[in-house]
Task: structure prediction
Amino acid sequence: MASRNPGPKHVVKPSATAADTASRSIGRDVTQVSVLAVTNDANDFITLPPLVSVPEGHRITILCTAGGNFELRTPVGSAEEINSEDCDGTKEYLCTDTQIVYVTKINNTIGWEANAYTAIGAVATAVVPD
Result:
């Protein structure tokens, strides 16, 4: 019998290097991500897949278990948005440790919508990327 709660489908490691690296990028077929310990500090980040590589409605669950806060970005130079803000390095979405972040693709023009829940299941305060 298959498990009702399968383990994470993808593991990423936040870091602060300028380039999008494979160890930090979320693959286009990924729906659940486990985040390893941050490398430096809360400026370390992980990267969403390009919008054109996933269908509308594609949802990614990010388990924020890195032992510290980190940031979420879109691919460098893409001008793609999270919560109506360009997040390709100009701005980033803050992922708070111990929360669960859900990211859903709206479409290629609007981009990604992100929301989070706390460890006790409460809706977290909305994040405007900065």
Notes: The beta strands are 10-12, 32-35, 45-47, 59-63, 70-73, 81-82, 85-86, 93-95, 100-107, 111-117.
